[in-house]
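To assess whether the prediction recovers the assembly geometry, we first specified each molecular entity separately, as shown.
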Amino acid sequence: MPSTNLTFTHRDEHRAWLASQAALPAGFRVGCTRFKFTPHEAPKPAQMTLTLLALDEPTTAFAAMFTRNAFPGAPVLIGRQRLAEPKIGAVIINNKISNVCAPGGVDASEKICAATAQALGFTSAQILPSSTGVIGWRLPVEAMISELPAAARALAGGSILPAAEGIVTTDLYPKIRRAEVGAGSIVGIAKGAGMIEPNMATMLVYILTDIAVPRAELRPMLARAVDASFNAISVDSDTSTSDTVVALSSGRVPFNDWSTFERGLHQVCRDLAEDVVRNGEGVRHVIRVTVKNTASLGLARALGKAVVNGPLFKCAVAGNDPNVGRLIQAIGKYVGAHAPGTNLSKLSAHMGGVKIFADGVFQLDPTKESALVAHLKAAELYQSAPSPDGIFSAPIDFPPHERSVELEIDIGNGAASASVIGGDLTHEYISENADYRS
Amino acid sequence: MPSTNLTFTHRDEHRAWLASQAALPAGFRVGCTRFKFTPHEAPKPAQMTLTLLALDEPTTAFAAMFTRNAFPGAPVLIGRQRLAEPKIGAVIINNKISNVCAPGGVDASEKICAATAQALGFTSAQILPSSTGVIGWRLPVEAMISELPAAARALAGGSILPAAEGIVTTDLYPKIRRAEVGAGSIVGIAKGAGMIEPNMATMLVYILTDIAVPRAELRPMLARAVDASFNAISVDSDTSTSDTVVALSSGRVPFNDWSTFERGLHQVCRDLAEDVVRNGEGVRHVIRVTVKNTASLGLARALGKAVVNGPLFKCAVAGNDPNVGRLIQAIGKYVGAHAPGTNLSKLSAHMGGVKIFADGVFQLDPTKESALVAHLKAAELYQSAPSPDGIFSAPIDFPPHERSVELEIDIGNGAASASVIGGDLTHEYISENADYRS
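The predicted structure of the complete assembly is given in tokenized form:
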């Protein structure tokens, strides 16, 4: 993947690169506003950012995919309805509260849509709402409505960076990816750091293009791109109730080479998906598993997920401990439970290019052990150290893109293959998530 | 479950209680020996305990169940063959190395069986081997064979406690449970702390009885007892490659009331299963989930497992944070991915007796929030604090049995129900598992 070739040594370098990627396609403006409020459910004041992604004119060319979690948030319920609408003119996004299974949640999101429509001169049905944050809390509807005109006044073309920054929660840095296509471009932003094993989508992703791609082309292309990108990552195996991927075209740039467009769309999605993992909560090692020669793509991806979701293997990676027994355990756990007929007798496995398993047995010796430890250490995104009161947090504000733990699992029994990207399981993940709301 | 009524305030009280449970059934002896060796794969010396469970005479009345992991250890491969043998006379168990996918693993285990048979005057085929510990390493066969006579010389009746202590690895304390049945008894011991989401079995469990229960009765009874106990727990969702449950009858006490025997067997299995979770690696809160009114027992248990295996919910519990949004997310993740037709509209949920969800929405207010925090705090097994160098370890050496986080999920759509027991996800788990082998 091209993104692993990026090397940054300081936050400012990363910021300069983000700025170089951020040019908004023609026909779009973004605006944000940030304000304090007191949630209904907790007496402590909190901060929310409202982010508006607006088209100059509503478009028929839009696509969206949503979480498969059986308790979707109110914005997801509304978003699914919006797919049948003739046009979409804007997306209104809030962080801090996800509006999932909260009393009156759908009504609250519809009120935000109505206020957004009024500020922009569109109709409510042309507004797509998105929310991310604490599950179960109610949106502060009145505060949001009174702040909406400020977000509308802030609308500006030029750069998508304010939106990439506005939608984050626990993210360490904003995420922007682009592809130039013909005389236009595809630009995507993502929010996502935890509760990341998307199914059909990742947390919040918005992809804007000025290429005039019709709705009927855009929707299946987005589905294929999501399948090969956001459906092939996992930070912690949890699936958000808010996962959303939206693609919008302003139609400003005529084009008709859809295979070129689709390549660009796939690249933007794959790069954003890797960014989400690389920014995953507590992730100190990015783990890239390529599973080769399986009977089906589904099995290849499932085995890759079994590896990156195995808690004990994730812990071993966190400790730079090449405990490859836990890797084989994770594969055997999946096959034993879900694919018991699979022939594993030809399985071979490599880590960092070192052969660790073949012919039914481990292929280990002290020299290989040292090489594996060196591979794991070289892939660390940062050094782990607690604060004096025992809290661990990631001491970085830019992503080291060039570092990954590389695993190759060859099943030797079929022609399908897949790559899955995940992360390790660290003290930083526990510190982040054992007291997230306080 | 009766075990939650046990209260200990000091290690010595727990030890005295264990001793009161430890009387060996007639016809059995146990013996252990501990020694140092240098593994083939790592230059550092290590320690191993050999534990021998011997019948005075080989018995036809034995049963065993093994892991469903598709990469089972050599002792599991041999154990499955032993099920067809006419008689079993002893079990030989080692910790430290699990003999899984190690070169020459089956041959190594057979050599240990042969040496055990020679020491006891039995045949090799009458010996059942068990191993637990690091996956992938080779057994130190010669060192084990030269130590075997010492274990045989140590054989003694009276107490099973030496065996309960001999089989452990990262366990904090030995685990013994018993049931009196007629004029005899059923006594079980368990080893298990991590890599615990058994499928058909938990790590290593040995159940001895002097009740004369025929093989044809014992095997289906063990299968049912394991299903309701070791298949309803999870520490970390990983499935060991060595999981084994063995039941042996010496046949000394005539009996024929199999429903009474089966009740005793279930009780011993359920109690040991809870002990394994309560001693789970890094577990600071035991979480008991009762899922009621589902369409099937399988769905009830799967939903319970989805809750106790949800990393973000586990982290919230670790932090005494009643983030019930993550609980609902975990249920929705499972249903969305694996049971999409399930009607969740009647779902209600309680934590610690407090209603948190009903009618499709959360039922939360600040008073309930305080009650939930109090429930979580009262269920803590110990206070968490790092050492000065940032390592977390459980500062207890006895199990606080009376403390659990209690969840009740009523699906309102069927007649099946199940209880599942699991634990939280803590810094202690990461410290234990990020550098296990060093």
